[in-house]
Amino acid sequence: MSATDAERQQLSKMARWLTMDSDKALAEIRTFFGASRPIYLLVNNDLLMRLGEMIDYGGAPLSFNSKVVPAHDNLHGDISQIKQWAYEEGDGNYLVQKEGLNYHLWGTPKLSGTEKNSLIVRLLPFVDSLKKLPDGVQLVYQSNWGGYLSIYKIDLK
């Protein structure tokens, strides 16, 4: 089933916002929705699997390193291996999704500006994103292990 024109316009806006610079995206979101009611964003890690669709809807192309590795009984050893991969293949900023007996790893590339500052990376639980959210964004809810699902409230400034 294809999206209607109205749905396509909404999907296009969201794709653009998620893939653009987080500060610019948040300013556009505030302008678009206005100050009449609170603004909440729900994001989940599966958005990374939908990057191609976001580009199709007009989002900026983002490049991530990605790898699937087996999970072992030694969590600390796995984390060490994941961090090593993140620094060898990228700039050290990574997100881990547990999928059955494997981890799906996502990392931002070396010298990344576009990816690292995009709204999608700033809101998903990449290790650098967890250190500081964009200004005017509050985490309302995050699911356990890996922060698969997160809900944010955007201040109306």
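Next protein, fold it too.
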Amino acid sequence: MNKTLIALAVSAASITSVNAAEVYSDATSSLAVGGRFEARAVMADNDAGDTKVNDATRVRVNVAGKTDITDTVYALGFWEGEYTDGNAVNNRHLNAGIGGDFGQVRYGKTDGSLGMITDFTDIMSYHGNEAGGKIAAADRTGNNLAYVGSFDIMGDNLTVKANYVFDNGSEEDGYSFGAIYALDMGLAFGAGYGEQELGTNTNRTAKQAFGAISYTHGDFYIAGLYQDARNASDNVFGNLASETRGYEFAAAYTLNNTVFTATYNYLEDRNASGKAADLTDSIALDATHYFNKNFRTYASYKFNNLDQAGDRTRAGTSDEFVLGARYDF
């Protein structure tokens, strides 16, 4: 199961669910349905100092279609929606394209190119990835033309991604690209870069660079992520900062059917000083038990190291405890 962790970083060539069930197939075409039911109880203090339990339960359903065009080229389509109580269905993915030995090309709402880099350390069942926020063009977004390819190089694996988000009239077009080189001995390297215009009235460009490294040995997995960003606050950090720098460290140990993970996240505003410069500072621990490939339960705790400073609320600096159960289909 430790290999699942490194697979998060190197299996970017397919976004279909690993548990998806094929519901139709013939000589040239297939259709698969997958998703998850995930119950999540989130316990944290509010601004009054009272501990509250929030229901963050969600359901995801995805449908993946594929049909052969020639012996080496195929067409594909993918949709995934997420529903939470009281909200409309959120279309997470909505795209179609072609694929082959050259890789895959998709257009629609699909992933950008930096998610596979943040996946090096985004391995927890709930917490983590607080220092890995991405600009919109590098994250999952619509009006997006994306390419991904995975290639064997003398037993090692090279995965490359590139995408371009078209201008929809508001001059918010952008692009990102990234690459991961995974050695057969368990060491992997990743790097990526993205830019995006921030609209007609801002006259600014968001820029973001990521670098990551990981190592898998037996049941142990360790990884580190570094990011440097300019003017990315409009898309990621809620106008908190225009120049940010951060990093995340992650470790995991697999014991039979249980995975123990820990992460440390730190993100700073390089234009601020004192306690207000710390945008994220947290340690998170979780344990996830896999009963089988379809069902798991987990407990996750985040130690929030931020102090109340500036416009930070008590709730925004509170620790957080989460209990979850997830059924994949």
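About the second fold: The domain at 2-328 is CATH 2.40.160.10 (Porin).
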